[in-house]
Specification:
globular, 4-stranded antiparallel β-sheet, single chain, 16% strand, alpha+beta
Length: 295
């Protein structure tokens, strides 16, 4: 018979909503044309003595996080523009009645922690990010972070159009092929998904793909334009002064999210590397906190 490679993912310990990820893979792949690996098998209760698992097709490509900063200008721009197009497709085609996290109810995709108020839901989400700092080297920044968010969260609007948000949409969860016209070949790790405001997703992607990866302001501006250009292929978006104020808040929140995952992200690094990373995060914290608008 024909031979082909697959990827098997087993349920991690302590993850109760494991079935959500394969469900989202199929839900998204059935509705929009973005690079999502197809689910071949899902076993929630395997016959063998193993954890629940699912099997996907194996997609060719290298991890984008390992290469993004070293790509030439043309390829980097195409990657960022495609990332914007993927967001545009998601936001144009998949919406929800309210804001919240996504979960399953009798194998049906539902919005949990449901809220009509985006500002309230976002504020609660950021408070969870700040709580997670307690077990990181940044515990001393918790109160400062709360004060900063408390002063600025009012610029986030309460209303909006809830859309599908891949809340872990970052280079580490992308595969890419530099020889392809559309270099991003796969978007992975869909278990962290929200019904959220599209502006939040755009600004979060801006931070995780562009800021602060590139120190040159002109480079950041050019790449941000490419992100918006890709997005506008599928959905209108005109960033105004109000968006720029909200973007600053979303960037600060995204940094807090990254800081909360510091121990896991740097578990295998040397103490020197950890110390340098901690210093960079603290510098970014100060910069972004100082850039926050007053509500």
């Amino acid at each position: 018979g024909e031979e082909y490679e697959v990827v098997v993912k087993f349920q991690p310990g302590g993850e109760d909503d494991f079935a959500l990820e394969p469900k989202l893979h199929e839900y998204v792949a059935d509705r929009i044309d973005i690079p999502v690996p197809r689910i071949l098998v899902f076993k929630d209760d395997p016959d063998m003595d193993v954890a629940p698992y699912f099997v996907t097709e194996r997609v060719e490509g290298d991890n984008l996080a390992e290469s993004l900063a070293q790509l030439d200008d043309d390829l980097r721009g195409r990657v960022i523009e495609q990332a914007g197009a993927i967001l545009g497709k998601m936001h144009a085609e998949i919406g929800f009645e309210g804001f919240g996290t996504l979960g399953l109810d009798d194998d049906r995709l539902v919005v949990e922690d449901f809220s009509w108020d985006w500002q309230q839901f976002f504020g609660d989400m950021v408070e969870e990010y700040i709580d997670r700092l307690a077990t990181t080297p940044f515990a001393d920044l918790q109160e400062t972070a709360r004060e900063c968010i408390g002063r600025s969260v009012g610029v986030i609007e309460s209303d909006g159009v809830p859309r599908l948000v891949h809340d872990d949409f970052r280079p580490a969860n992308m595969l890419f092929d530099p020889s392809s016209d559309e270099p991003i070949t796969s978007v992975l790790d869909w278990q962290f998904a929200l019904a959220a405001d599209p502006e939040y997703h755009i600004a979060r992607t801006d931070f995780l793909f562009i800021d602060p990866a590139f120190e040159d302001a002109d480079t950041r501006a050019r790449l941000r334009d490419r992100l918006y250009t890709g997005y506008r292929e599928f959905r209108d978006f005109e960033p105004d002064e109000g968006y720029e104020r909200r973007r600053a808040v979303y960037h600060f929140a995204t940094l807090l999210w990254r800081m909360g995952g510091f121990e896991a992200a740097f578990a295998d690094f040397s103490e020197l590397a950890k110390a340098r990373a901690e210093a960079r995060f603290r510098q970014q914290f100060d910069q972004l906190a100082n850039a926050l608008p007053e509500a």
